[in-house]
From TrEMBL:
The keyword Manganese does not apply. It holds the Pfam family PRC. Residues 359-417 form the CBS domain. It comes from the Bacteria. SUPFAM superfamilies: CBS-domain pair (SSF54631), MgtE N-terminal domain-like (SSF158791), PRC-barrel domain (SSF50346). InterPro entries: CBS_dom, CBS_dom_sf, Mg_transptr_MgtE_intracell_dom, MgtE_N_sf, MgtE_transporter, PRC-brl_dom, PRC_barrel-like_sf, SH3_actinomycetes. Keywords: CBS domain. PANTHER family: MAGNESIUM TRANSPORTER MGTE. It comes from Nocardioides conyzicola. This is CBS domain-containing protein. The keyword Glycoprotein does not apply.
Length: 431
């Protein structure tokens, strides 16, 4: 049975799509049910304004679903409201559909009436008289000229722009990259995963090595391997160097042995050595799961030094919860492991106090051969989010965090399984 569109007087007459990305989506009760990730449209011609079919929304578990515009009741500057009845099946793009953020940004276009040539950096939508949402205007940026960092920008009517429906073999990714850089790595990874293959390759080529490494760490293994295989060997090695050693080791284990060996040879010797060492451990043991780069300080460091290190935004909360105190050398494998300092204890002590004075040396560290069940039992017994791993000589090898444990304990498709039970009871069929 068709569902009537609910008209809300506060809905703006024109909405720019790039500003929608990341906005929360709420149900009628005010509970957040997801975030906007893209807009799905049906492009018929360069004269006829494309009809907006719906939103691509990210819901819990990082799943992407389709939200028809008939389910959208209000859009304002800070949020999107829906009827609350959503189909939780994973979004799958149809051949007749176009993703505005994923496919339309960075298209090369031409405005015959003014002679302007440039690339699309945003698109506006508005409601037509029949209350359908349509794409109405195109924001275009000319190439930079002379000493200007950015080219002139223009906003044109959809019908006045040529090139919007043409397929480009070498479409750029500047504006899409800008949108991805505003997202968390996990969110960016999901958007890249859903792009058409040729667009995904363009985006991967345009991402810098550090950002691509962050994204790769959030992708399933098969997507990691596919992306890495399309990079030239030198760049693949550079990206692996930017990844955390444990994630790089896991990815290497999924590559053909000869490919992994070749990439290790191309990596910087110190980075390659860390990865080789982690690859040597038996799968699903503490040694294989641990990171070799926790926060390590010497006994002469102060609490102020420790707090400065754990403020590093690149650390996960689990790794920032403990400081590992060791004798020289401080790179793993370290000198003798002395104990850990808990972040809560550090916050209660004067900054000038030596970190050695607040050590917790009461719990036994893990051994690298500890099984996944033993690691889980250890963290649960001591109420820890991370724990040290030491060798026979009591040298620190690394640390296992609860993040590492969950990555290895949960099934590969756990996100889909987590919401499968909801598919039977929520929403309507797309169509």
């Amino acid at each position: 049975m068709p569902v009537a569109f609910v008209v809300v007087s506060t809905t703006p007459s024109r909405v720019y799509v790039a500003r929608l990305v990341g906005l929360p989506i709420f149900d009628p009760q005010g509970d957040q049910v997801g975030k906007v990730r893209d807009l799905v449209v049906a492009v018929r011609s360069e004269v006829q304004q494309p009809r907006v079919l719906g939103l691509v929304a990210e819901v819990f578990g990082r799943r992407r679903i389709f939200v028809p515009m008939t389910r959208v009741t209000n859009i304002d500057s800070g949020q999107v409201y829906t009827t609350g009845l959503l189909n939780m099946r994973r979004f799958e793009q149809r051949p007749t559909e176009t993703l505005v953020i994923g496919q339309m940004l960075d298209k090369s276009v031409f405005v015959p009436s003014t002679g302007v040539t440039g690339t699309v950096y945003d698109v506006a939508m508005e409601q037509a008289r029949n209350r359908d949402w349509v794409l109405s205007r195109v924001a275009i940026q000319e190439p930079a000229k002379g000493l200007r960092r950015r080219g002139q920008t223009y906003v044109c009517e959809w019908r006045d722009v040529d090139g919007l429906t043409q397929r480009e073999e070498a479409q750029g990714a500047t504006h899409l990259i800008a949108a991805l850089n505003e997202m968390r790595p996990a969110d960016a990874a999901n958007m890249i995963r859903d792009l058409p293959p040729e667009r995904r390759r363009a985006v991967v080529a345009a991402l810098d090595d550090e950002r691509l490494a962050d994204v790769l760490e959030e992708l399933p293994e098969e997507d990691q391997v596919e992306i890495l295989e399309h990079l030239d060997s030198e760049r693949a090695a550079d990206v692996l160097e930017e990844m955390s050693p444990d994630d790089a080791a896991d990815l290497m284990a999924d590559l053909p042995p000869e490919t992994a060996a070749a990439l290790l040879e191309l990596m910087e010797p110190e980075e390659a050595e860390d990865v080789r060492r982690l690859m040597a451990y038996v799968e699903n043991t503490a040694g294989a799961m641990m990171t070799s780069e926790p926060v390590i300080l010497g006994p002469d460091a102060t609490i102020a030094d420790a707090l400065a290190h754990v403020r590093n935004p690149d650390l996960t909360p689990a790794l920032a919860a403990l400081v590992y105190v060791c004798r020289q050398p401080l790179e793993t494998p370290t000198g003798r492991f002395l104990g850990v300092a808990h972040i809560q204890r550090l916050l209660r002590e004067p900054p000038s106090t030596l970190v050695a004075g607040v050590l917790d040396d009461s719990m036994d560290p893990l051994r690298p051969e500890a099984t996944i069940d033993q690691v889980a039992a250890h963290l649960a017994t001591y109420n820890l989010v991370a724990a040290p791993v030491v060798d026979d000589n009591h040298h620190l090898l690394g640390a296992v965090s609860v993040d590492d444990l969950l990555d290895h304990m949960l099934p590969e498709n756990w996100r889909d399984q987590a919401i499968r039970s909801n598919d039977r009871s929520q929403g309507v069929r797309r169509g």
